[in-house]
Amino acid sequence: MMASCAKPPESQMVADRFMELYYTRMDVAEAVKLCSGSARAKLESELQAIQGVKPDSAAGEPEVTFSLTASSNSLPAEASYTYVIDAHTSDIGKRSAILILDDQDGHWLVTSLTENDGAPPS
How much is the pTM? Predict the structure, then answer.
């Protein structure tokens, strides 16, 4: 018997891509392209704050991984995804991120980003 490899919903693919760009690659300029609303305002503010600052060497950056812990699609045009983020370094603990995405004219965009210290409650 073959296991089915169901493709995740488009909203989750956008959420995963955002997480990859923003947390793993630390590429705020690319991540902002997947945002609107308060999430976009937050990232644009970060871009302004780091404008002209040279990035640290890649050797100084922690390896960041994330995993999806919860999802909800209560409305056809809205989805919510909760992730645990691990920087794999002793001086930075685990964090959680909750993304709210909206389908805007056929394109899923991150409209809200909430970050918290520690893993989300079980």
Answer: 0.84
What CATH number did the domain enclosing 86 receive?
3.10.450.50
As a whole number of angstroms, the distance between CA 114 and CA 98 comes to 5
Residue 117: its pLDDT value, please?
Answer: 87
Owner of token pair 């793993």:
24
pLDDT band for position 1 (cuts 50, 70, 90): very low
Looking at the domain assignment, is residue 24 inside a domain? yes
Q: Provide the residue range defining the domain that includes 15.
A: 10-47+61-117
The reply to whether 25 falls in a domain is yes
Percent of the residues in the chain that have a pLDDT greater than 70, as a whole number = 85
Residue 94 tokens read as: 């685990």
**List of E strands, the chain:** 65-75, 78-86, 95-104, 107-117
